[in-house]
Write a structure and sequence with these properties.
134 residues; alpha/beta; Rossmann fold; five-stranded parallel beta sheet; 5 helices; globular
Amino acid sequence: MVKKKKVLIVDDDKIVLDSCKRVLEAEQLKVTLVSNAQDAIEQLEKKYFDLMVMDVKMPEKDGVYILKKIREKWPLDDWPELPILVMSGYPTSDTIQELKKRGAREFIPKPFTPDELLAAVQNVLKRSEKHGKN
């Protein structure tokens, strides 16, 4: 039996959360939804995820905060590989560079189609599997 990949989705927009869940569950992925940075950190403390898909701009604490907290709580040597796909409606090259420097693997601009989301998720997971085998 093939183990379902677990995906954590972090976004303050319920429509985006519901849309992502519908698209990814149709592909047999196990999806957990959270609407803020603090809930994302709490989920990461409790469970292992194969992928985190997160928004950058959120009220209170943003995506950069999440990545900073991950690195503070789990130094790179202690942290199992967590591929991160960033989505944003406000892509700036500075923000994208900052997030990549902190561990984000790929970026997808909002709005995106279900096919674009699925392609980005599959790409990140595929690269992660190859990296894990080396």
